Amino acid sequence: MLGSGTSISPVITNMHNTQARSFDGSDQDVNVDGLISAVAGVIKTDETEFSISFWCKLSASIGATVTLFKCRNTGSNNNQIILLYHASGNEFRFSPKFGGVVDVCNGGSTNADGDSYEGDGIWHHIVGTVSITDNTNELWIDGAKKETITGVGTLNEAINDVSLLQNGADGSYFDGDVKDVAIYGRQLTDAEIGVIYNARGASGDKGLDLVSGSHVSNTGLIAHFRFEEKSGTVAINEAGTNGTYVNAPAITTNIP
Amino acid sequence: MKKYVITNASNLSNVDYTLVEQSSLETTRKSLDSSLALISFYGNTPSFLDGITQYDKDEIKDIVTSSDWQEEEN
């Protein structure tokens, strides 16, 4: 991957890490219909360069598969990207599927301590990348590359639906806490992924930027939800069209 | 504690959305056949939900992750 081994030091920015949002797995998500054109603009036939960076902490009672992010063409199931936690597999999975050819990057069923991700009480940093340039799909968890699959398929239908925290068909709602979610129209480098992971604050109050800013380039950033709103239904996207909280996900001060 | 009920979708016109967690009729989750709807609330039971079985989070998740409510994710 480009940029491997580059040394980038995180810096303290404004207080961007003061709260997160809790989703209960029943009917809460963030409506991001306003992102469709931006996402479709970076997931294109033979041009896709894409990354999603996602902080989350799973509930103890996942029970069924939950969706973190999904974009797709609604006309078929043949062109989509899904980031999910697979309940029966007990693992995060990143699955780009272009032209009907699916690549499933598996995250493994245990965290760094050897425990299940479900209910481990630990924030995890999940990154999925797709790069036509490198011809790879990758899944990273907590700064470690879990799987690389070589061979990106050929998108043959345009993305026309984007969902955050549910599967786009009012199902597989996320159950747990969520913090900074960012989407890039480029492949994050290995070094950048490591920097973002290491930006988490052990004390929870360091105010480190968990996605971007002065330590990770904003180049290609098309969405960044910090979940720092104190009230209301607007989910601020610092890189584009805002989203809308659906059915009142709770604010929590438990943060990465 | 948050409480959940499953009501007939035909009753949604009686729901006062200022008293429940759902934002509106449009954001209220329905079963796949659209016959049932999920409503949740904190505190006292709103009168329009009197007499309807209440569930906790684990119980409602068993219901809304069933095949009546969502298609299986691959």
Verbal overview:
- The complex is a heterodimer of chains A (256) and B (74).
- By secondary structure, chain A is mainly beta.
- In chain A, 6% of the residues lie in helices and 36% in strands.
- Chain A contains two helices and 17 strands.
- Chain A has helices at residues 36-42, 190-198; strands at residues 20-24, 29-31, 49-58, 66-72, 80-86, 91-98, 101-102, 105-106, 124-131, 136-141, 144-150, 161-164, 175-184, 221-225, 234-235, 243-246, 250-252.
- In chain A, strands 1, 3, 9, 10, 11, 13, 14 and 17 form an eight-stranded antiparallel sheet that branches.
- In chain A, a hairpin with a 7-residue loop joins strand 4 (66-72) and strand 5.
- The longest helix of chain A is centred in the last third of the chain and has 9 residues, at 190-198.
- Chain A is globular.
- The two termini of chain A are 27 Å apart.
- Chain B is α+β, with helices and mostly antiparallel strands.
- Chain B has one helix and three strands.
- Chain B has one helix at residues 57-64; strands at residues 2-8, 36-42, 54-55.
- A three-stranded antiparallel sheet of chain B has the order 2-1-3.
- The model of chain B has no long low-confidence stretch (mean pLDDT 95).
- Chains A and B meet through strand 5 of A and helix 1 of B.
